[in-house]
Design brief:
The structure holds two protein chains of two kinds. Chain A has 13 helices and 16 strands. By secondary structure, chain A is an alpha/beta fold. Chain A folds into two domains: 176 residues, Thiamin diphosphate (ThDP)-binding fold, Pyr/PP domains (Rossmann fold, 3-Layer(aba) Sandwich), CATH 3.40.50.970; 105 residues, 3-Layer(aba) Sandwich (Rossmann fold). In chain A, helix 2 links the parallel strand 2 and strand 3. In chain A, helix 1 packs across helix 2 and helix 11 packs across helix 12. By secondary structure, chain B is α/β, with parallel strands linked by helices. Chain B has one domain: 3-Layer(aba) Sandwich (Pyruvate-ferredoxin Oxidoreductase, domain 3), CATH 3.40.920.10. Chain B has a six-stranded mixed sheet with strand order 2-3-1-4-5-6, with helices on both faces. The model of chain B has no long low-confidence stretch (mean pLDDT 93). The chains are: A alpha/beta, B alpha/beta. At the A-B interface, strand 10 and helix 10 of A face helix 1 and strand 2 of B. Strand 10 of chain A pairs antiparallel with strand 2 of chain B, so a sheet runs across the interface.
Chain lengths: 375, 175
């Protein structure tokens, strides 16, 4: 029987994607425009013997998911700007403790509590650098309801595989939009689980990478008893202040992602082969960019679109490759400062013709807004 | 029939515009079309300007917002002022129970809320309007809307909604 297409909201698709990926623990504090993820989890989790926990705030929420993950559950939370700010400290703990988990940040207009119901893409740099200390992060960003589902699965796969927190950076437009999608059957999309230790408990070192660069993770409450600390630690998890150990550990936290960079960094390109104008977009703005590029082609302007699906690590290579041949680069993003534009300038250099098309008033960037700069 | 239809339903929070958009989008999916529904609202759950947009298309829908609406529903004076003064050929439906009557060959004023009240619930006003808009534009089969309503509602509520849809269809087929 052919499966039926359903009208699904982006936030709902994220919740379904997370559960498809095996998430069985959600802890959160509802906030617009992410609240439907909590709502949907409160309905879905009991049906899969999972846990839905409404916490007292976002600090508790991330603390709960870090704990749940160490106890062996695939866990996640969802929030927006104000809550994401509160989560930074324990997100750092998840980086340092190498705890797999997923944080969904549905971006809304700021600063601070800003325009609660309006879209933005202004947390790009906070996602990358919001925590103190020297660390790396993976962030993915969906442009369609279908991508809300598939990238939620992918976020868990990356988290589990590399023992890292992963940020799913949606925006209010995509999160609140409804589109027709067909949910995949179990087994249709790959689901990855964390590596478990194969050595006996007394030999287990929770931070000793195997040949693939990743350390297996045992579950709290099992026969494997181990220590996790936010402070500098050795392979056994206990505090270690040796400079050589610190040097190795900080580098290891970066290297384990650098090694798999080409698998982590995902982009999609549309009509870029002969493009003289390259539009770079991510999340919801991809849609306006694609519509604008098609319209531009009707008027004889060879335009193409590069969609950044992975925001971090940044798509340096892909932008360099696609940008080289283009005469003009246009970056489309919903923030004042051009957070992605700055990165594009870093890659393509000061000589390149790079234009920022942006809005930061809670309004949506339209194809017309983009076409204005292509004239 | 066009390849793509774009619809704006505007009013204030709590008038059921989002649900109305969802029902239209679901009906389009039943017909094998693509659909995107978006909404714009303020921080209040009731009151304040609210808008629901639907695009239904036989092709991939790139930009998610309505750019050239084929039909508009306005349920407040504010919404009417924003959208009624556009294209002279673009049909604008509005509720004469809530808004002042206007004249214009593209303006379709009907007492949706009063009709809904007589049917048993003011909440069906949108369904009456949807039936009328679908019939006038031909953007969706009213049978598809009926299927969505019977799936969404049960028993007496479903019957009331089907009656509302029928009442809407008759509003534009009568004359």
């Amino acid at each position: 029987m052919q499966r039926e297409a359903k009208l699904v909201q982006g936030n709902e698709a994220i919740a379904h994607g997370a559960i498809y990926a095996g998430a069985r623990f959600y802890a959160g504090y509802p906030i617009t425009p992410s609240s439907e993820i909590a709502e949907e989890c409160s309905r879905l989790m009991p049906k899969v013997d999972g846990v839905y926990l409404q916490m007292e705030d976002e600090i508790a929420s991330i603390a709960a998911i870090v704990g749940a993950s160490l106890a062996g559950a695939k866990s996640f939370t969802a929030t927006s700007g104000p809550g994401f700010s509160l989560m930074q400290e324990n997100l750092g703990l998840a980086v340092m403790g190498e705890v797999p988990c997923v944080v969904i940040n549905v971006q809304r207009s700021g600063p601070s509590t800003g325009l609660a119901t309006k879209p933005a893409q202004s947390d790009v740099m906070q996602i990358r650098w919001g925590r103190h200390g020297d660390q790396s992060i993976i962030a993915l960003t969906p442009a369609t309801v279908k991508e809300c589902f598939t990238l939620a699965v992918q976020a868990f796969n990356f988290a589990e595989r590399f023992r890292v927190p992963v940020i799913l950076a949606a925006d209010e437009i995509v999160a609140h939009m409804r589109e027709n999608i067909i949910f995949p059957d179990p087994g249709e999309v790959q689901v990855i689980d964390r590596k478990k230790p194969t050595v006996p408990p007394e030999q287990y070192k929770p931070f000793e990478p195997e040949s693939d660069g990743i350390a297996p993770l045992a579950a709290y409450g099992s026969d494997y008893v181990y220590h996790v600390t936010s402070s500098m630690h050795g392979l056994d998890g206990y505090s270690n202040n040796d400079p050589a150990n610190a040097q190795w550990r900080v580098a290891q936290l970066h290297r384990k992602l650098e090694r798999y960079r080409d698998e982590i960094v995902m982009t999609k390109s549309y009509d870029t082969d002969d493009a003289e104008v390259l539009l770079i977009a991510f999340g919801a703005t991809t849609r306006a960019a694609r519509a604008a590029a098609l319209e531009a082609r009707k008027n004889g302007i060879k335009a193409g679109v590069l969609q950044l699906i992975t925001l971090w690590p940044f798509a340096d290579k892909e932008i360099a490759a696609h940008g080289k041949g283009a005469k003009k680069i246009v970056v489309v993003e919903m923030n004042y400062s051009g957070q992605v534009t700055g990165e594009v300038r870093r890659i393509l250099g000061p000589e390149k013709d790079i234009t920022l098309v942006n809005k930061y008033n809670g309004q949506i960037i339209t194809p017309k807004d983009i076409l204005e700069v292509l004239k | 029939m066009k390849e793509q239809y774009e619809v704006i339903m505007a009013g204030s929070g709590g008038q059921g515009l989002v649900v109305c958009g969802i029902i239209l989008a679901q009906a389009a999916i039943l017909e094998g079309q693509n659909a995107v529904q978006t909404q714009s609202y303020g921080i209040a759950s009731r009151g304040g300007f609210s808008k629901s947009e639907v695009i239904i298309s036989r092709n991939e829908i790139m930009f998610q917002q309505v750019q050239e609406p084929d039909v508009i529903l306005a349920l407040t004076e504010q919404a009417m002022k924003m959208y009624a003064s556009g294209e002279p050929d673009r049909p604008v439906f509005y509720d004469t129970t809530l808004l002042e009557k206007r004249s214009g060959r593209n303006l379709y004023g009907f007492p949706f809320t009063e009709m809904a009240s007589l049917l048993g619930h003011v909440g069906t006003a949108n369904i009456i309007a949807l039936g009328a808009m679908a019939t006038l534009t031909g953007m969706i089969k009213t049978d598809s809307l009926a299927t969505v309503l019977t799936r969404r509602f049960a028993g007496k509520v479903a019957d009331m909604n089907i009656k509302a849809l029928q009442a809407g269809i008759e509003l534009v087929t009568q004359d």
